[in-house]
Design goal:
By secondary structure, the protein is α+β, with helices and mostly antiparallel strands. The relative contact order is 0.14.
């Protein structure tokens, strides 16, 4: 039991407040491991692959309640470092057509060079039109699948099961549309702003812990690319042609409005601190 308490203390120091029931189960799962270092490593790995609504305790920090104020008038900051998990992720800074073009371009890069579509000024060619021998075999083979990103929108869930939208106020390098599995855990620093119920993410205040959830999302990036393409096409086909760009602009404007409210909130907090300092 002393070793179990050491593991709990180790995790708590890292702002991960586990349920005692879950920790007992994880401790039993670790089997014959008794040395503290391999034990904490094994239990941490298990925790990152578990739904936090089951693994974290009732004292784990969670999202503040949704504001009662009219939209645009309120913001709140997280009071303590908070562990959350990603339940969905989408690109909102690029149009559906632009994302589908990016998917097509990515699929082309995965093909052998001799099977790719030839575009002007895209690849160097020999005088007879063939690819140079040095680059002929397989370009991008084995490279991680990545799509260009502008602004990601996520659905985050806390230990109590509450869900909130989140957007990148500034790009978070660890987040990727194809490489970030559903269930990945994030640690949000105290002070992260929640504006109109939307969590604002920045690299400096968002720690990517990794992990996932057991189930169908334990897939390859290529499988996620297939699912993303199908989803984008379904969403595009639902919108009339004239409404597609309008709907996309509305989504982008919503993100810009939240960022604007965040900047105003940050300036208001700074003025408040300055006023208290002068009084």
């Amino acid at each position: 039991m002393q070793t179990q308490a050491q593991v709990a203390a180790y995790l708590a120091e890292r702002h991960i407040h586990t349920s005692s029931t879950w920790l007992q189960t994880a401790y039993a799962h670790a089997g014959t491991l008794h040395s503290i270092e391999p034990l904490t490593h094994t239990i941490t790995k298990l925790l990152l692959q578990t739904d936090i609504t089951a693994s974290l305790g009732p004292d784990a920090p969670s999202f503040p309640p949704l504001p009662d104020e009219p939209a645009g008038s309120g913001f709140v900051a997280l009071r303590a470092p908070t562990v959350v998990q990603i339940m969905a992720i989408a690109e909102i800074g690029t149009s559906l057509a632009g994302q589908l073009d990016a998917v097509d371009a990515l699929r082309e890069k995965q093909k052998p060079i001799e099977r790719r579509l030839v575009r002007l000024n895209e690849e160097p060619v020999d005088a007879d039109g063939a690819q140079p021998a040095a680059t002929a075999p397989m370009a991008s083979h084995g490279d991680p699948l990545n799509l260009p990103k502008k602004t990601l929108r996520l659905v985050l869930q806390d230990a109590r099961g509450q869900r909130r939208f989140a957007i990148e106020q500034k790009p978070v390098a660890a987040l990727n549309l194809l490489q970030t599995p559903v269930g990945s855990k994030l640690l949000l620093d105290a002070g992260v702003l929640v504006v109109q119920g939307v969590v604002l993410l920045k690299t400096l205040t968002t720690v990517f812990l990794g992990g996932g959830l057991p189930g169908p999302d334990t897939q390859s990036a290529l499988t996620r690319l297939d699912a993303l393409e199908a989803d984008l096409k379904a969403r595009r086909d639902v919108l009339p042609r004239a409404e597609g760009p309008v709907a996309q602009r509305a989504t982008q404007q919503d993100a810009q409005a939240v960022r604007g409210a965040a900047r105003a909130a940050t300036r208001g907090r700074a003025r408040g601190r300055g006023g208290r300092g002068r009084s």
